[in-house]
From TrEMBL:
Membrane topology: Peripheral membrane protein
Function (record text): Accessory subunit of the mitochondrial membrane respiratory chain NADH dehydrogenase (Complex I), that is believed not to be involved in catalysis. Complex I functions in the transfer of electrons from NADH to the respiratory chain. The immediate electron acceptor for the enzyme is believed to be ubiquinone.
Protein name per Swiss-Prot or TrEMBL: NADH dehydrogenase [ubiquinone] 1 alpha subcomplex subunit 12
Domain of life assignment: Eukaryota
Subcellular localization(s) per the UniProt record: Mitochondrion inner membrane
Pfam family of the protein (one): NDUFA12
Record's subunit section: Complex I is composed of 45 different subunits.
Family from the record: Belongs to the complex I NDUFA12 subunit family.
GO cellular component, one term: mitochondrial inner membrane
Keyword Ligase: no
PANTHER family linked: NADH DEHYDROGENASE [UBIQUINONE] 1 ALPHA SUBCOMPLEX SUBUNIT 12, NADH-UBIQUINONE OXIDOREDUCTASE SUBUNIT B17.2
Amino acid sequence: MYSGICCWTVSGLKNENKILRIKYVLLASRLAKMSIKEWLGIDKMQKFMRIIKQMGGVRAALKKRYLMDVTRVGTLVGTDKFGNKYYEDNSYFMPRNRWVEYPDKVWLDYDPTQIPPEWHRWLHHIGDDTPTQNPPKNEKWVLQHEENLSIFEDKKYIPYSTTRTKIQGWQPGQKKQQ
């Protein structure tokens, strides 16, 4: 009974050694094709430093990372009337290769309604031509695009209501009503 287990273990080790040898050969061939920069990861650091430089320095890169949750660099394709900047980098996969950067005045209060329809078309791959390459026709029945104003306190729409409030809020300094 013990000899069967030993034989199984020995044959298992032989197969395992073959697998390890194959993995070692594959790893060695992969390492042989790599340059020293790639092997030490220096190429990744160079790419990182190039991205930081293209973004305008460490401070600008940190700000963009804070606002967008991602660090991307691409070619500027155009700017719209709201000050949004549109970028493209085809090294990313299809839905993520186009993006918008909102202006600084918006800060963290950005909203998708701040993107005009012609740029929305390009951003979501409905068409490949940007509005600067192929401007839309100005029809007289088309309204001017406005962003959603409900995010601004002073421009919020508050509907008129004729019904009385059912609950009266307590205000400090009032005496209890009897």
